[in-house]
Known about the structure:
single chain; alpha+beta; 12-stranded antiparallel sheet; 44% strand
Amino acid sequence: xxxxxxxxxxxxxGVVLATLLFTQYSCSYLPKATSxxxxxxxxxxxxxxxxxxxxxxxxxxxxxxxxxGSLDLFWNQNDDVYKIRLIAAMGQGTILxxxxxxxxxxxxxxxxxxxxxxDELLASSLGVSIPLAGLHDWLRGVPAADRPVQKQxxxxxxxxxxxxxxxxxxxxxxxxxxxxxxxxxxFYMDRDDNPELEIRLLIRQWNLLDREVx
Length: 214
């Protein structure tokens, strides 16, 4: 087994915690979804796409048919330059991802690798897919700008709640104020072509435009 896969899947109990935490978010409020976009949606998208620099921490949980695990997530974004650190519990290991418009590098204790695509590079290390490219936009509660959208549903507050894009089914919830913006803090993702794969992300803390919100 690859080192990255060992780092991720050795912490099986963590995914149980992530699942319980996500269930608390998703069950506490089940919004009514509509396919009618809010009147100000295009303005909201334009405003959120301007958010280009942030720091956030969270908990990433994943379940496949035979394995599960969780990692602490630290994401620093500065325009096109980003650094993402994934840390397993109890000192089991760290994955460091650094990227910009020209490419991405991934570093573990085994060494460093390079590719043009962050998703492919991470999949080759973990053995499973994590849609980092899409998350860059989904974190802000909007679809990825450079990919077609198959489906969008909004909640009764006018926030994007469900999205189908790039082969992923994404559910966003637990919107909270971050500076002047309401951004989702809980995500659930799966794929129709890989129904055994489930990904959950809980944002613990945002640092956006020099404003720290938890």
